[in-house]
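This part of the workshop introduces the protein records we will be handling. Getting from the letters to the tokens is the skill we practise here. The record below serves as our worked example for the rest of this section.

…
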Amino acid sequence: AIACVAGDNCAGTQTRLTSHVEGFVGEFERAVPAPEYPEQSRPASVSWRTLAPDQPVLEVFTSGSTGEPQAIAKQLSQLDNEIAVLNGVWPHASSTVALSTVTHQHIYGLLFRVLWPLCSGRPFERTLCQYPEDLLAQAASYEEVTLVSSPSHLSRLNAQQDWSVLSDRLRHIFSSGAPLSREHSLHATRCLGCGVNEVYGSSETGGIGWRIQQADKDVSWQPLPGVEASQKPDQTLQLRSAFLPSDEWWSQPDRVEFDSQGHFYLRGRADRIVKVEGKRLSLSGLEQRLSASSWVAAARGLTLQRSRVETAVVVELSPAGQHQLAGQGRKALIAELRTWLATDFEAVLLPRRWRFVEQLPFNRQGKLPLSTLQALFEVADRPPGCTQPQVVQQSVATESAELTLQIPAELIYFDGHFEGAPVLPGIVQIHWAEQFGRQLLAVTGVFERLEVIKFQQLIIPDMTLQLTLDYQPARHKLLFRYQSERGVHASGRICFRSGNV
């Protein structure tokens, strides 16, 4: 049997996989219940057999960053070889507990959070750390810990938080899924008191190289033991590795530059070439040019199929860019950024659709799935008078849900609240929490009262938030929390009583 690890448990994912797998186990809508064996029917002993090294045992999926996720089979030898290398490069004490902010649904999370600790005899926490409070609470229970994280989490560490509980116990930090900027790497090191081991690789190749960034120089990637890497004539990377299914050279669509030590620098993707109006456009080049602006912290380009193919960008603004947006407005900012791009790109290639977000919507694996970016553009530009947030992404379980929301500047609730400095009213935040609770979690009953309501930080236009909902049907209570990279904005409980809505 082959274990198929889906990227998420969304209904659409389950529908797509129905014809691919024999059944679902875990937090799926149509999950197969775990078998129950009476005590007397359990066998006294089990006859185990040794699997062949080339036996396919696992199937993972690409992140969907460039299109529909694809299944990737992993042989036992690939996983075994990689775990042995990781254990040699970063030896751990047997008592060191693995804590994680990334799920096992990506090959990085599966290896570093679950398989490596299992094979090296180390314990690991089965509960995912979604918030800093979770991480600190888990760390406080152990003498030594290692952290398996991602750029999206490490870049949002609050410097004002007291991290001493974690840093006193922390032995290693790992990050993968995308390169971590030097600024964010050093920020995480200052907060946590431990250098960040970045691991570069892909779902297909497993780990390729690693680095720890430094303040005084640009650090290259060092190939992992057993990985042979070189540059092809088109400046892209090729490699041979014990983590691949064969000994043949593998072409990786990343441009690289090697140094005299055989280490390499990443110089952007080579396979993100699209055609717009018959002309070739490098989305990577577009992103790099935008990111060179002092107003842009990060950008992600894509194309949308409307009446014609259109270029679109999702832009995470820098503090200077946010100031410009607040002072000059959206149209003026777009005009300035188009002028900035016009020196390098023909007019027909310039982005026609723009979305400004406080944080690029990375998922828990530290990836930017194409579907998530496309969702930001699915609703047409909202006219004045809209009343709803844009749902960028959502994950729903039986009694809990997590939504990523973008707050449109055109909301009617910003009008007059307050002039020149719009703020989302608290009553609207409560209304949305109840609305999504009734839609997604079958919340019933009549509103009765609010408990422990806290409004800790302002919610302003164009902000991206995570709304977490937990329903307690026995107590008739809905718990909600709005959070962003700045921390918790609002939280509380909505209480209901039995009766018709």
Notes: The two ends are 48 Å apart (CA to CA). The mean pLDDT is 88. Residues 163 and 210 are 25 Å apart (CA to CA).
